[in-house]
Write a structure and sequence with these properties.
Layout: E1 8-15, E2 28-37, E3 42-47, H1 56-66, E4 70-80, H2 91-107, H3 116-126, H4 133-176, H5 179-205, H6 210-228, H7 231-250, H8 255-275, H9 279-299
Parallel strand pairs: 3-4
Antiparallel strand pairs: 1-2, 2-4
């Protein structure tokens, strides 16, 4: 399945004359735009003229059937073709106007005759309006398909970026793993040196038992090894990275699951930094946090 981004744009146009307008009627051009950005849920907004408001339930259902997340704005507009917007007066309409004009002039002799513009305006008002509902729905369906394609293309680009960050985190984990035993060994050597110094001082003063000093040194070394041991954190980090790769390969609606895994990655990176006892580990932990933050920013755009 495909991974979809929540960012995209698409537009489509249609002609109301294709949906039943008769010959000589005005052609109404319809234009529909869809704009989508990231959002935790599906948030729909409609910008359209009042004569199209009756289509909002159908348009809402159309968009909801194709998208699960994202802030999507639908804009619809209509325009009349100037070349075909002139009304076509019929003999019946003209005869009616002549009769009305004669009656008015009989009552009001000083009234001026009707102009051509007034006749055309009256004929336009009598003509049945061109219904653009089907044209709007057709354009909306085309725009929805275009938006899905745009979000799919953007989703593939995001997957490539996410996989780069995942591989970077794996590399950093591999670099951190051999550093921990070396850090523990260096610290244990320091404890041994301190123990020897303490033994020498104890021998000189004979105030502290040698066995007690030795036990204290060993306990401190063991406690330090436990404090700086990040094997569990690295193992969980790798498990989270495996799950991220699996979700990206599976496709579908993975944004919320990935967002949760990114939070877990952030927790492991923070723990690694807090347990760091060497400059090398601190540097790796910082790089991990940067990579995880980059992951989080990109995952926010996935559906």
């Amino acid at each position: 399945m495909t991974i979809y981004s929540m960012t995209g744009y698409a537009s489509a146009s249609s002609d109301a004359s294709e949906t039943g307008a008769g010959a000589g009627a005005a052609h109404v051009a319809v234009h529909v735009e869809l704009r989508s950005v990231n959002s935790r849920f599906l948030d729909l907004a409609f910008r359209m003229p009042d004569e199209l408001r009756g289509l909002e339930p159908a348009l809402r259902e159309l968009v909801s059937q194709n998208f699960r997340r994202g802030k999507i704005e639908l804009r619809a507009s209509t325009s009349v073709d100037a070349a075909t917007s002139l009304p076509q007066p019929t003999p019946e309409l003209v005869n009616r106007l002549v009769h009305v004009e004669s009656s008015v002039l009989g009552w009001l002799p000083q009234a001026r005759p009707l102009s051509v513009n007034e006749v055309l305006h009256w004929c336009r008002s009598q003509a049945a309006p061109v219904r653009a509902d089907e044209a709007v729905l057709a354009a909306a369906r085309t725009a929805v398909d275009g938006l899905r394609d745009a979000r799919a293309r953007e989703g593939q680009r995001l997957v490539a970026v996410l996989m780069e960050r995942v591989q970077l985190l794996r590399k950093l984990a591999m670099q951190a793993e051999p550093l921990v035993p070396a850090v523990v060994a260096r610290q244990q050597q320091r404890f041994i040196e301190r123990w020897n110094e303490a033994l020498a001082a104890a021998s000189a003063q004979a105030a502290v038992p040698t066995d007690a000093l030795r036990d204290r040194a060993l306990n401190e070394a063991a406690a330090f090894a436990l404090r700086v041991d990040v094997a569990e954190e690295l193992a969980r980090l790798r498990a989270h990275l495996d799950e991220i790769e699996r979700l990206l390969a599976k496709g579908g609606e993975a944004g919320k699951r990935l967002d949760f895994l990114i939070q877990e990655l952030q927790r492991e990176a923070n723990t690694l930094g807090s347990k760091s006892a060497a400059l090398e580990l601190t540097s790796i932990a910082v790089e991990m946090k940067v990579a995880v933050e980059q992951l989080r920013e990109q995952v926010q755009n996935l559906e």
